[in-house]
Amino acid sequence: MGANKMFKEFDSVIQPKDIIDPIEEIITNRLEQRNEKTIKFGEITTKNLHVSDYLFSTAPHIPQTLISNQNLFEIQNLANNFTENLTSFLIFESMLNSYDARSDYCFAVSSKNGEREILANLIKSGHLADKFLKQSEWKQLGNFARSWTDPNSILYDNVIGLWFEFDTASTLPDAPAPSIFIQPTSHYTITGDVSAQHTWITKSALPLLLGRPLSNIVEEKVLECIKKLPLESSLFQIGTMLSRKDDEIRLVIKRIEADQIIPYLTSIGWSDDENNSLLTLLEEIKNKVTRIVLHISVGEKVNPKVGIECSFYPDKYHQEQGWAKFLDYLLEKGLCNKEKHSALLKFPGIEPQDQDEEFNPKNCTPSVMIPEENYSSALIRYVSHIKLVYQPNKTVEAKAYPAVRLFGHPYNATSQTTKLIKK
Question: Is the pLDDT of residue 220 over 90?
Answer without folding.
Answer: yes
